[in-house]
Amino acid sequence: MMISLDHVTKVYRHAEHAAVSDVSIAIDKGEFTFLVGPSGSGKSTLIRLILREERATRGRIDVLGHNLSTISSRKVPFYRRKLGVVFQDFRLLTNKSAAENIAFSLEVTGRSRGYIRQAVPDVLRLVGLDGLGDQMPNELSGGEQQRVAIARAVVTKPDLLLADEPTGNLDPDTSRGIMTLLERINAGGTTVVMATHDTDTVNRMRRRVIELERGRLVRDEDRAGYEVAR
Amino acid sequence: MKFGRILRETNHGLSRNLSMVVSIVLVTFVSLTFVGAAALMQMQITQMKTYWYDKAQVAVYLCNDSSSTDVCPDGSVTTAQRQAVRAKLSSDALKPYVERVYFEDQKQALQNFRTEFKGNSSLNWVSESDMADTFWVRLKDPSQSSVISETLNGQAGVDQVQDQRAYLDRIFGVLRLASYTAIGLAALMLAAAILLISTTIRQSAFARRKELGIMRLVGASNLYIEAPFVMEGVISAFIGSVLASGALAGVVQFFVQGYLSQRLQGTALITLGSTWAVFPLVIAVGVVLAALASIVAIRRYLRV
């Protein structure tokens, strides 16, 4: 099991209600899973819990063989090197070119210069940005920026890719391109967990859907659409 | 490669925050100068103590023509009175305390006075009769001078019993007070320096929060993230403490050895040789405090 949540509850400090409440999920290696639900349903909190940016208030989370309730903060960076993560707002460094943004995550995790020189063009090709490495983020379209962000997330060859509303800022055509890319990455063996409220995308892809509502798990269905078939 | 990058980041941080770095340098400079000054004063006190306490004796001044008639109703001391004082000093009652007694008559006293105040204009007015016959008493335990004064005060022919050590203690008291004041000021300034360092580090981290956020997401190690910030604080404080050491060395060399030694001849003053340990100490205090302040500041910032 790649990700396992066992009766997980998260209550933020000073919050009245739990952001995530008694959720149990198991996700296997190689799966492509959508996390759906309206804003504030707990999708992002779940992503943050898996990233170990937050600790669960109750319950147990195991990811890639690490127990996230007991992992020491010294080991968290090494745990995070095994995952990639993408966000709605891309989070690129605006003073670095596309290639430098990708190289940055390799540099700060101590990869050699030779490895970086080889890996960056490879991953640019993978995400369809061949030849655009020297562009600055503000010279790229939204879809291209998200591709840079995805390239940065997967250049370390992670076992697990977390995506928090990666198509949230993109138009439908561009979104489709991003989803094709994520599918290709998934086909290469990387487990993908994607939080979204993009109905079209979920309905088109027919993958596993985990639905949250006010922090509670209300649906966990394979090859499903955004809404329950009635 | 990894070390090179940390250095590059440090350099980047330093140049970006130049004004803050300058203020850290100045505050650590001033505070550590106080720390060092307090240490130097303590060393000066110790040095003077060993020098003076070694020489300090109990002086038993005998009556002369200028003594007040309250204490010396008979005027100048008579030979019989002098014999009586000498007898008392070598009596069985005082013997256990006294190591040595040395008598100095008016003539010798004038001679010593003249060498001591050579070149001083007041010498012209002083005559032998202004000097007093004196028994210099060296004690086995210098702190027990009260035994001598209790025995000899009121003795016929004795003008005054003066414990030079008690007299010196008052001077040392003033010096000690000055050095405690310096320590107090140093503590205040160090507190200011620590707060300034943590503010600067936090500001520096805030300016780079986006980069830091990404570094944390992709799994850069804590040491790797923190090191440039800690280096930033440490290097600034190091510059400040080197300046402080330089200033203190200058004070010892030019003020104490240059100015004071001209005016206080015969006083054992501190030299660069006897105080060298203060300088690495000052630098170590600066660097260690800056490192701790930076580590705490950056850890607290990153946890939030």
Task: Give keywords.
heterodimer; A: alpha/beta; four-stranded antiparallel β-sheet; B: 304 residues; alpha+beta; Alpha-Beta Plaits; 2 domains
Overview of this protein structure:
The complex is a heterodimer of chains A (230) and B (304). Chain A has 7 helices and 10 strands. With 230 residues, chain A is of the alpha/beta class. Chain A is globular. Chain B is of the alpha+beta class and 304 residues long. Chain B has helices spanning 2-16, 18-55, 79-89, 106-116, 145-152, 164-207, 209-218, 222-263, 272-275, 278-303, and strands at residues 58-62, 98-104, 134-139, 158-163. Chain B starts with a helix and ends with a helix. The relative contact order of chain B is 0.17. Chains A and B meet through helix 2 and helix 3 of A and helix 7 and helix 8 of B.
Topology of this structure?
The complex is a heterodimer of chains A (about 230) and B (about 300).
Chain A: E1 3-10, E2 20-27, E3 32-36, H1 43-51, E4 58-63, E5 66-67, H2 76-80, E6 83-87, H3 98-107, H4 113-126, H5 142-154, E7 160-164, H6 172-187, E8 191-196, H7 199-205, E9 207-213, E10 216-224
Parallel strand pairs in A: 3-8, 3-9, 6-7, 7-8
Antiparallel strand pairs in A: 1-2, 1-4, 4-5, 9-10
Helix pairs in contact in A: 3-4, 3-5, 4-5, 5-6
Chain B: H1 2-16, H2 18-55, E1 58-62, H3 79-89, E2 98-104, H4 106-116, E3 134-139, H5 145-152, E4 158-163, H6 164-207, H7 209-218, H8 222-263, H9 272-275, H10 278-303
Antiparallel strand pairs in B: 1-3, 1-4, 2-3
Quick summary of this structure?
The complex is a heterodimer of chains A (230) and B (304). By secondary structure, chain A is of the alpha/beta class. In chain A, 32% of the residues lie in helices and 27% in strands.
